[in-house]
Amino acid sequence: MRDNTGATATATRTVTVQNGGPTPLSASFTTPADGALVNGTISVGMAASGGTAPYTYTLTIDGTQVVSSGATTYSWNTLGYSNAAHTLGLTVRDNTGATATATRTVTVQNGGGTLTVALTSPSPGATVRGTVWVTIWVDGGATGAKSYTMTVGGSTVWSESNADRPASLPWVTTGGTNGAKTLVVTVRDSAGATGTASVTVTVSNP
User: Fold this and answer.
1) Cα–Cα distance between 44 and 32 in angstroms, integer?
2) Strand pairing report for 116-121 and 131-139
3) Which pLDDT value is given to residue 133?
4) Is the residue at 6 inside a domain?
5) Which CA distances in Å does 166 have to 140, 180, 200?
6) Distance of CA 49 to the CA centre of its chain
7) Rounded distance, CA 38 to CA 83, Å?
8) In this structure, are residues 114 and 189 in contact, taking their beta carbons and an 8 Å threshold?
9) Within a domain: 3
10) CATH number for the domain harbouring residue 149
């Protein structure tokens, strides 16, 4: 300021400007509860608050993305997952590009059911020698790889996991004696369901 004689003086003051705006973006799960036991097909509920709508919800299960959209629910078929703890991860992105995350751990616990297993080769009563390829068809069960175990006389002759439909596994008959043998195949899927099938053949190696 300046007075009538030309003398001047100054003063200062600090203020904080705080205009209204969106609250910080946050992400959360509404279902299932953290630590819950889940089975079958369940609804995963997702929510966002703050930020600037609309929101995009990206859901991962054990680090693998399963959906990314504006929907706030996802139908999760747990039969495709092992009976164990699994981590749900959520990333929410708002209209300005801001993001927020949340995680939740649940345990899948599906009851083991029964698979329908059929052996289409070798044929019952066939005479076999050397390495025989056993063709196995499985009906029903969870998606993904299945565990196959082949036994003869209670001893395992082959075991592996694969997702082939049908599965074709080798039986090396030269590892045992000749004569009538019953081959038993047991199949287990990722949800714990099992099934068996058997065929009796005659082993005749030189």
Assistant:
1) 6
2) antiparallel
3) 97
4) no
5) 13, 25, 20
6) 28
7) 10
8) no
9) no
10) 2.60.40.10
Which tens digit of pLDDT belongs to each residue from 98-114?
A: 999 999 999 887 766 67
Strand order in the sheet with 41-49: 26-31, 41-49, 73-77
For the stretch 38-57, pLDDT in tens is 888 899 999 999 999 999 99
> Do 122 and 97 belong together in one domain?
no
Strands 179-188, 194-203: pairing is: antiparallel
Rounded to whole angstroms, the Cα distance separating 192 from 200 reads: 27
Q: Which of 108, 131, 155 is the last residue before a domain boundary?
A: 108
Residue at a domain's end among 108, 131, 156: 108
The answer, yes or no, to whether the previous bond of 24 is cis (omega within 30 of 0) is no
Which amino acid type is present at position 125?
Answer: G
- Between 97 and 22, where is the model more confident? 97
Domain limits at 55? 26-108
Task: Give kind and range of the element (H or E) at residue 80.
Answer: none
3-class DSSP state for residue 70?
Answer: coil
How many domains does the chain divide into? Answer: 2
